[in-house]
Amino acid sequence: MTADGNSSREENARKRILCPLDPKHTVYEDRLAKHLKKCNSREKPKPDFFIQDINAGLKDETEIPDQLVPISSLSEEQLENLIKKLRKASEGLNCTLKDQIMSHPALHDALNDPKNGDSAAKHLKQQASILGNIENLKLLGPRRCFVEFGAGKGKLSHWVDIALKDAEKVHFILVEKVTTRFKVDGKHRKKNSVFERLQIDIQHLCLNKIPLLSKEKLPIVGIGKHLCGVATDLALRCLVETYAASCEERNEEPLAKRIKNDKTEKEINTLAKEGNEKNIPEKWTPVAGIVIALCCHHRCDWRHYVGKEYFRALGLGAVDFHYFQRMSSWATCGMRKTTLEASNSSTKRRDKQNDGSEEHDDGGCRITDDSPESLPGFLTVEEKKKIGHLCKLLIDQGRIKYLQQKGFSPALQYYTDPLVSLENVLLTALPNHSSSPETSA
């Protein structure tokens, strides 16, 4: 027997076991201790900007029963009572939002690329409209930091960067809790813009602890495309409660304001002629604005929801929220079933290629026990769709009230055609002192 033969037999005799940190891979049992020290799934030291549950909101353990029956198990009377509650709570709300479908020249060539498939074209139209709305709110300018929540591949920040061209001191922070393939971050090599990607759940993100923000003191613009359910509430609290409130407590004067105060009259006149001075806020605020495309209300969570106070004022609680949240999926499920087959092949292909949250176009709805097909038959599909939209509107109205209480002027508007995306509502907010155009909720 050769030495090589003995070595091979010993290798085959060694036992492989599942890695205790991640059962998706195996390791030699006699090398386990060494492997655990370098396994990619080991718990890594938390960065300074990780603070457990800082944006989670207060936990109301007593308010939600452990076991709530699904909507499909409710009696007709119970369901009717829920719908009555919903309609009463929604009285006076404007159910028809303003159309604010826009575009931006930065995406002109991409939008007209003949190689675009149906899915790519739809995403580009949404990105163009979001970018157009950012510009319309006078948020597209130099000396600020764009924080993209649920960034996925980072395409929204990519287009903001393209639109800003050579604007001075523009920073991007891309927040995504999962590892994302096919990121576009690496394409940016401009000297005036800096990209930083943070792999963290928004629930634990403390913006004040990010070195870039603590050093530069740039005003923030919070952006997001299809920010799923609970992530929207976490992002809003992260911006206007955790970050803005703490900055104001410290009375920090940011770089943008210092630059303006230090400028000579000649410099200011020069900037005004170039059209850039309007983008330096007269009165600084830590958060210059918020532009978020909403998505997946059925994935909201009462604990994290920022509109609890609004719900309670209407005589509603955690159980009502739970059922309204589930019923919100009716707004998109009914229509998706008729269009699913046509887009099924492209959706499967897209799912194989993408992991980012930016691909959540139509709420990610599936036929479940809360979908129209499994509910009592006393409501038509059209009625269920209207009820679903009403649930979404009520949940969003809680977010509007929250932002108003925090000193912002918020608005809801349609930013794209429902044929492009069924999730077509954009939430925007500006600080009350802003001179930008006002829109109503």
From TrEMBL:
Region of interest: Disordered: 341-371
PANTHER family: TRNA:M(4)X MODIFICATION ENZYME TRM13 HOMOLOG
Any one GO MF annotation of this record: tRNA 2'-O-methyltransferase activity
Family matches, as Pfam families: TRM13, zf-U11-48K
GO biological process: tRNA methylation
EC number: 2.1.1.225
Residue ranges, compositional bias (Basic and acidic residues): 352-369
Keywords per UniProt: Metal-binding, Methyltransferase, S-adenosyl-L-methionine, Transferase, tRNA processing, Zinc, Zinc-finger
Protein name as catalogued: tRNA:m(4)X modification enzyme TRM13
Entry keyword Transcription: no
Domain CHHC U11-48K-type: 16-43
Family of the protein in this entry: Belongs to the methyltransferase TRM13 family.
Enzymatic class: transferase
UniProt superkingdom: Eukaryota
Job of this protein: tRNA methylase which 2'-O-methylates cytidine(4) in tRNA(Pro) and tRNA(Gly)(GCC), and adenosine(4) in tRNA(His).
Reaction equations catalysed: adenosine(4) in tRNA(His) + S-adenosyl-L-methionine = 2'-O-methyladenosine(4) in tRNA(His) + S-adenosyl-L-homocysteine + H(+); cytidine(4) in tRNA(Gly)(GCC) + S-adenosyl-L-methionine = 2'-O-methylcytidine(4) in tRNA(Gly)(GCC) + S-adenosyl-L-homocysteine + H(+); cytidine(4) in tRNA(Pro) + S-adenosyl-L-methionine = 2'-O-methylcytidine(4) in tRNA(Pro) + S-adenosyl-L-homocysteine + H(+)
